[in-house]
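user: can you give me the structure for this one chain? tokens are fine.
assistant: on it. calling the predictor now.
[tool input]
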Amino acid sequence: MLTNERMAAARERCVRQPDAVVATPCVHSRALSGASGADVYLKYEHCQRTGSFKYRGALNKLRQLIEQQMAPTIVAASSGNHGLAVATAAKVCGLSAIVYVPASADPAKQRAIAAAGATLITVEGDSLLAELTARRAAEDRDAVFVSPYNDIDVVAGQSTIGSELLEQCPDADMVIAAVGGGGLLSGIGSAMRAGGSQAAFVGVWPAVACSMYRCLQAGQVINVAEAPTWSDGTAGGVEPGAVTLPILADVLDEQWLVDEDRITAAMRWLAIHEHMIVEGSAALAVAPLLERHPAVQGKRVIAVLCGRNIDYERFQTALQQGATAA
């Protein structure tokens, strides 16, 4: 379903129109290369508009609705980043947006969604419950639900990252990124494979909250119990019928799990050595490098820093825990 034509159309909507996505840099990290035994490049998606890669998928989806001469109310569900992306893209497109978030979502992300002009509704429960609640609300309102990952046009928007990487680092041996619902690596991997890349694609999960990982192992969507994680952007169950499950099953070469103390240690390392504030989901891609994972040795590796939207006090706590784990 994620065809070359669909990905090319996403590039037109996201890159070549006003209020476009940022073509984020892919920057060589001398410090991380030395620490990991790999030749490491960091893809700066935390510098994307709205502070995460999610703006790409949201903008592509909403602009497609405009092309279809639809001007609906947009309903979304999110732990934060997708909601902020939808709220911002809706404002750009002249649409109204309602965003459902789990009550446990990062307060900084909730404030940012509301500030972007969306109506914010909290749900007592996890990200999957917020998603299912939002879908029902969209049906009741005759609105359009925009999934954070279970929408092929959202995934096509994320594929624009892969198109950029083909130009920025065409000889990459490996691409590492966090996985929640799977839209990020589904898009990147599909675009790079279509462009002839021979890179291996590695998905990383927090060990305590790895729903899609377990679904991939089972070959179908299953219910998975999760515990709280520093990688709140990837947390939550997988929606039945997720379009990303078969794409990931085809694209992923490696699937790795990371403990919580390694996530905070990676957040702290990036703050000290790269002077970056990133959220836990971004640190997921760096944690295996700091552990000098055998698979990365001597390879040219791209680690995708997927977002920076974390409450500052929570970030300080992560740094303190990271110091203990280091």
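assistant: here you go. The beta strands are 26-28, 39-43, 74-77, 97-102, 119-123, 144-146, 174-178, 200-206, 254-258, 300-304. The chain has 14 helices and ten strands.
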